[in-house]
Amino acid sequence: MNLKAEKHYLRKRILENGYLKYIDCVNESERNKEIIIQYVNGASYKELSEKYGVTKNRIPQIVNRFAMKACWYEEGWK
C-alpha cells in the first residue's frame, strides 16, 4: 500500500462499509458532519483544516470517531 492510499484508509473504510447512511443517526455536530461528508467526497485534510479552522491532525480524529460510532450503530449499540 502506498503512503497516499494508507493516509486515506478512513475514506475507503467509510465508503466500503456504507457508514454514511448513519450520518444523521450518530451524535456529531453539524460542522463535523460537514467535515465527514466533504472528506469522504474527496476533500483533503489540508483543505478541510483551512476551511474549518482546525489542525490537519484534527480532521482524521473527527472522521475516525464517526466511523467508530457508525460501526457501533450498525452492530446494534444504539
Identify the overall geometry. Answer: globular
Q: Provide the domain count.
A: 1
Radius of gyration: 12 Å
Largest sheet: none
Low-pLDDT stretches: none
Q: Helical proportion? A: 55-70%
Kindly report the average pLDDT value: 89
The proportion of residues in beta strands is under 5%
Order of helices and strands: HHHHH
Number of strands: 0
* C-alpha termini separation: 34 Å
Number of helices: 5
Structural class, please?
mainly alpha
Task: Give a verbal description of the structure.
This protein has helices at 3-7, 9-17, 30-40, 45-52, 58-74. The chain is an all-alpha fold and 78 residues long. The chain has one domain (3-74). α2 packs parallel to α5 (58-74) and α3 (30-40) packs across α5. 21% of the residues are buried. The mean pLDDT is 89.
Secondary-structure blueprint:
Blueprint: H1 3-7, H2 9-17, H3 30-40, H4 45-52, H5 58-74
Helix pairs in contact: 2-5, 3-5
Overview in brief:
This protein is mostly helical and 78 residues long.
List keywords for this structure.
78 residues, mainly alpha, 5 helices, globular
